[in-house]
Amino acid sequence: MKNSVMLTITSLLLLLFLTFHLTGDIVYGWEPGGLANLIVVVLVSVIWLYGTLVLFERRAGYIITLVLSLFSLVVPYIHMKGSKGVGVTSRLGGTSGHFFFVWTLFAIGVLGLFSAILAARGLWSPKSRNQ
Question: Can you give the pTM of this predicted structure?
Answer without folding.
Answer: 0.86
